[in-house]
Every structure is written in C-alpha cells, then in structure tokens.
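[User]
Um, tokens okay?
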Amino acid sequence: MKLTNILPVVFALFLFNCGNQQITDKADYNTYLETDQKNNYSQDLEFWNAKLDTNPDNFMWLTKRAGSYNTAFKATGDIAYLIKAETDLVKANNLTKYNNASLLRTLASNYISQHRFKEALSLLELAKTNGEKLEATKKMLFDVHLELGNYIYAKSYLDEFKNTADFDYLIRLSKWQDHQGNLEGAIESMEKATAIAKASNLNSIKQWAYTNLADFYGHAGNIEASYKHYLKALELDPNDAYAKKGIAWITYSYEKNPEEALRILEHISSYYQAPDYELLKAEIAEFTDNSQLKNTALSNYNTAMQNEQFGEMYNKYNVMLFAEELDQSKKAISIAKREVENRPTPGSYDLLAWSYFNNGQIDKAVAIVKEHVDGFTYEPEVLYHIAEIYKAAGYADDVKPIKSELLASSYELGPVMTEKIKQL
C-alpha cells in the first residue's frame, strides 16, 4: 500500500487511542427529535395530480410530478414514491421519443437511485448523442462509470469537465480521490465544494455538502468536526434522517452509548422507512446482547425485503445478512453473482468472495480476492473480509498489516466488528 494511504490511517489510530471524550450533547439535537415531521410534498403532489387529470400526456407536468415523488421519497424513504417517479419519467420520455436530454438524465438519475446502473448508462449515452447540455451528461456518465467499475472511462470524463471552481467537479473529484484511497485529498476537495455551496446559499446543496463532509471527517477520525457538520445539515432540514443517523453512529461507535443511538434511530423510524436502519438497530442490539431487539430488527428488515420494488438496491446488505446471520451462504452466493453481473467492482467481487468464504469454499474466496479485490479498494469492511479469508487460508504474514490498518478504522467499522478484528 502507498505511504499516502497509510499516513491518514496512522493519524486516525492515534486519535482513536487517545481516548474517546464526549462529543455529542443532547441539547444540540433534541429539538430535531421532537419536531413534528412536516409533509412538504403532499401539496405539490395534489397540484400536479390535478393538472394531469386535465391533460395526462403533458410531459412537462409528468416531469414535475416525478420531481414531487422524488422529494417524497427522500423525505420518507418510501420506495413506492421512487417507483411512481420512474413511471412518470418513462411516460414522459416515451412522449418525447427519448429525444430530450434533460428527461433522459432525470430518468437516469432515478435508475441510479434504484442501483440500475447499466440502464442509466444506456440513457446517458442517448443524452450524450443528443448533445444538449453535454457537460451535465458527462458528469453523470462519470458517476455511472464509477459505480460500474469502469474506472478508465470515469477518469476520462472527470478530466473532460475539470474546473476547480465548479461544485459539481469538486464533489466528483472528491469521490475519485476517495476511490483511490486518498482520504486527505478527498476531504480537501469536499471542503472546497462545501465553501462553494455555502456561497451559493442554496440550502439543498449546502445540506448535501455538510453530510458528505461529515462522513469524510468521520472516516479520518475527526469526530468532532463530523458531528458539527451533521448538526449544520439539521439546521437546514430538521428532518434529515441521514444526518440524524450520523449522530446516532457517533453516540454508538465513538461514545459507546447504544441507548442514545437507539433513541435517535427509533425517532427516525417514526417517519423514515429505509430498511437498512433496521440492520443498524440489529448491530447495536448485538453489541448490548439484546437478542430480542436484534431478532425484531432483523425480522423488520426481512419483511421490508419482501417488497419487490426494492429490486437490486439492497443486494449488498442481503448478501451480508444471508452469509453471516441466516446461515444461507448459498443464497448469498447467488445474490453476489448477480451483483457482480450488475456492477463488476472490487466491492461486488468482495461480496462474492465473502459468500464463498462463509460457505467453506476458501480456495475460491482467495482466488477472487487476489484477482479482483486486494489492492483495488481501501474500504475497511472489505479489508476485514480480506483479512479473514487470508487467515483461513494460512496467509498470516498478509493478515498482520491489514489488522493494524483495520484497528485504525475502529470508529468506522463499529464496536462489534472491532472485537472480531482483535481476534485476527
């Protein structure tokens, strides 16, 4: 591993070992846990529903209603809204014979949210051929190629719209640097993007920038800065479930206060429906040896997964759950293979290797790791899987440096996995 990748890890380990002082204060965020969740999208939906009742084939109105559905999805996590938005956007594109670049990009964005990256890529290629607002299309092509593991194409598009004074460029540069394991560079780029967002005075952009910068600060071990930026996001939108989840993670992983973390998560669940929040509850329950809560949370997650509208969105979580929790590693292998087909990234290959490992097929797991995973990603969870697979294969010398790096990522990985890392 490059020295530039090791230094931030060593620094984070130093910070973590200095002792975990109290960072959060209930007085900072309690008001956001008591606020009635305002339904800011119903009125818009009613307006566009009424308009479309009079003219159901107005493609502009369909696009507007799709936007309202998308807002509702972001506010509630209810997958039905995202699918309704897709229905409207497909109809709008049919009406315009898939010859409107803006509509193509909007439908592609919907497919990205659904993890339908190959379909999104096809739409963006059409938009590129159309040529309207070509730079906007190229930015999304970078996003999709990065998700698909087409890193040469992604970097090529990133270079095409390079502009260090542009918010859209900087956030994508930050993603690219993070992909390369350059956390310090990723933070620097996101800080520059956040400064531009603040100057723009557009709350939605500022809110997005604050939560993403908060995530990066957390990865780097700067927990106090992470906490402050989640609070900044909540100042703009008291209903920001992601920011609240970030604070819950700090109280759980850093401050070792699972009760407070669960209090925050229960509040979020009162209005936000993302199934993966149940898996976090299950993890916290495991940490506190609360088997009843863990079983309830896992049951809630599995019930949510019966909804076929989720499609491929939760493949990663399902692989991990079937491989580790439900002793259904063969089912995990099947899903992981599908995920590799959908997006052949190092992360997807890791899921397949981890599934084989949990099914006792160590040789297959090692072969996949060596060819597609080791050295291609710096994600701590993936590194943990590599370490466990190498340990089982008898590669003790390869495990030691990974273990040291993982211990530096204890905050990001959480207390449950940290205990597993200590056993490597």
Notes: Confidence is low (pLDDT under 50) at residues 1-19. Residues 12 and 222 are 8 Å apart (CA to CA). Residues 166-223 form one domain.
